[in-house]
Design brief:
Elements lengths: L1 H25 L5 H11 L7 H25 L2 H8 L2 H6 L3 H22 L5 H4 L1 H6 L4 H26 L3 H42 L1
Helix pairs in contact: 1-2, 1-3, 2-9, 2-10, 3-9, 4-6, 6-9, 9-10
Length: 209
């Protein structure tokens, strides 16, 4: 897979950067660090410019984010509430009020969450979905997404340029960072899930009295 990305970049340059990064945002398992680091390395032996590589990557990132934002608009809270009012909600032990609480939280904390999550692999793509679901205004969403992804892209492209022929080390270090970030996130989700269900179980006896 990595060889395919490199071949695409060698053949189509800026266009490949934008296209591959856009696809990476829609399908997170595609490694953006490989694309960006190798793109930075390419600026050392081709006419490609560091800032233009980062710009194309950012354009691709925003386009991909808009696709997932649109998915979030389709998966509206109202639609989820209808699903959770049936068998799905019973299986997942989720209530309509849970969706309402999550929506309220994202309305309050959504902006900073969208920005920070742009630096967390996998999540940096998926965060666009709850942003769409909560009906975050498109203007702030685009501003935060563009700013966050631009920083991420510029850093990795420049690191790839500085590393030169050793650009794969940058991709390797970023992969380690990604794994650590995902482990921390998984632990946080598990803890949040345990706390959530403990509260739900504790409330049941009270509601029966």
């Amino acid at each position: 897979m990595q060889n395919f990305f490199i071949e695409m970049l060698n053949q189509y340059g800026y266009l490949a950067v934008a296209l591959l990064i856009a696809i990476e945002n829609i399908f997170p398992p595609i490694p953006s660090e490989v694309i960006l680091a190798f793109g930075g390395f390419m600026t050392t032996y081709t006419s490609m410019n560091v800032w233009l590589v980062a710009l194309c990557a950012t354009i691709g990132s925003v386009l991909g984010a808009l696709v997932l934002y649109a998915v979030g608009l389709f998966l509206s809270p109202q639609r989820l509430e209808r699903w959770l009012s049936g068998r799905l909600g019973h299986i997942l032990h989720l209530k309509i009020s849970d969706v309402q609480k999550a929506e309220g939280w994202f309305v309050k904390k959504g902006k900073i969450t969208v920005f920070i999550c742009r630096f967390v692999p996998i999540v940096r793509s998926l965060i666009s979905i709850p942003a769409g679901m909560s009906r975050m205004k498109l203007g702030p969403f685009l501003l935060l997404t563009t700013t966050g992804t631009a920083i991420w892209n510029v850093v990795l492209v420049w690191l790839g340029r500085f590393a030169g022929a050793s650009w794969e080390k940058i991709a390797g270090y970023t992969d380690i960072y990604a794994k650590i970030a995902l482990v921390v996130l998984a632990i946080a989700v598990i803890i949040a899930g345990v706390v959530f269900y403990k509260k739900r179980v504790q409330k049941k006896p009270n509601t029966q009295k």
